[in-house]
Amino acid sequence: MSPFNRDLSIPPPNYLINLEEPNGIDIDGHLNVLAAIVEETSNPDNTRSIILQHILPTTIEYIDLVNSIYPVELIIAIPYSADSWTVEQLKNKGYDVVVPKDIDDMLNNSWKLVENKLKATQQPLIVQEVGGYFANWTVELGKYPHFKGIVEDTANGLWRYQAAERERPLAVPVISMADTPLKHVEDALIGDACVYSLEKVMRSQMSAILAGLRCGVVGWGHIGKSVAAAFAGRHATVSIYDINPIVDMLAYAKGYFPLPLAQLLSESDIVMGCSGRRSIRVADLDDLKNGIILCSASSKDIEFDLKGFAEVCDIEDIQIEESGKCSIQKYTVRASKKYFYVLKHGTPINFLDRPLQGAILDCTCSELFMCMKELASKSHQPGIISLTDNLQIAVAKKWLKTYLDIFNTITAEKDKVFFFPDSWDWE
């Protein structure tokens, strides 16, 4: 029988029953999954926490929820993304907030702030950070027996810990979520956030749009893939470059024509660095198309050798960074008079806006908290550790029930997805 002719005297099947209308989008963007996980968490030994994070309006609820279980002793704000209003709000709530003067200050001195807290109390302490700022200082922090370890969020941060580990063994446990399936959910959307922010800058400050421009993507990893897709979705012509030849082959199979780096730089109107490494050096300046725009989707200011550029270029501030405006600097190579533009001092352009929102932000924050919970509740050997599959699956199951109503019904509770991975072999 067609559903349009169904006998209304017969009750509908369970999966059609909706006793309460779906709420749609939560326009306040609350971290509902994280709140549910926090509700289930205890802290019997009174473990404290330090958070090194991007301090944005969307960070406040995350910090408050973490603080409700693992009292936050200190917040270290990443300077290029620190929102001044949010910093003041957190201070008004009673948090100790430090904003280092620049990235070098963070890399060299953040560990001392943690050590000061370790000296001040014998209570257990964990650190949640973004970017690998403590990678070279684990021996110093590992001297304190009540320091339980570090949670690290990003690929760039993971690489820093791996590089440090090659020099000498890490002295504390480091739980990384950089290469987990849950983190890849976020990565798939970061690229669009970067291109969104770039497009806003171009429309409002450069009298231009992306449609019809040649856009190059350097680094075709998880974020590079989403940047390329976002450029293509805005009707730009997209080319990619990756140092890994296998990745170039995959990009070709996906319709993103790979080019040698020199050719990509000479033909592109815009290049977005997504490699998480130094992608454009002084040696590459001769290859740049005149007037090219350089911007980054990677942590810190790692993509472009700005210090090296400054030695051979004259720099003009076209737009200083201020509220609602992106900094734009014009670099002119003294020898050739070729010029190019750098946006936001080469730091991630998506932090001009709120890069993550709503359900996906909730997923990322929930995974971060699960990593903190793992460190706080169990003893781990020093070294790099990945969040286990079963903990990621637990987050995903809560997320499905919270954000997709069809998974939050009596019938759906019996679905094999909620018994995974055991249900994999069900017959």
Automatic annotation (TrEMBL):
<dbReference type="Pfam" id="PF00670">
    <property type="entry name" value="AdoHcyase_NAD"/>
</dbReference>
<protein>
    <recommendedName>
        <fullName>S-adenosyl-L-homocysteine hydrolase NAD binding domain-containing protein</fullName>
    </recommendedName>
</protein>
<dbReference type="GO" id="GO:0004013">
    <property type="term" value="F:adenosylhomocysteinase activity"/>
</dbReference>
<dbReference type="InterPro" id="IPR036291">
    <property type="entry name" value="NAD(P)-bd_dom_sf"/>
</dbReference>
<feature type="domain" description="S-adenosyl-L-homocysteine hydrolase NAD binding">
    <location>
        <begin position="194"/>
        <end position="356"/>
    </location>
</feature>
<dbReference type="InterPro" id="IPR000043">
    <property type="entry name" value="Adenosylhomocysteinase-like"/>
</dbReference>
<dbReference type="GO" id="GO:0033353">
    <property type="term" value="P:S-adenosylmethionine cycle"/>
</dbReference>
<keyword id="KW-0554">One-carbon metabolism</keyword>
<dbReference type="InterPro" id="IPR015878">
    <property type="entry name" value="Ado_hCys_hydrolase_NAD-bd"/>
</dbReference>
<dbReference type="GO" id="GO:0005829">
    <property type="term" value="C:cytosol"/>
</dbReference>
<dbReference type="GO" id="GO:0006730">
    <property type="term" value="P:one-carbon metabolic process"/>
</dbReference>
<dbReference type="InterPro" id="IPR042172">
    <property type="entry name" value="Adenosylhomocyst_ase-like_sf"/>
</dbReference>
<comment type="similarity">
    <text>Belongs to the adenosylhomocysteinase family.</text>
</comment>
<keyword id="KW-0520">NAD</keyword>
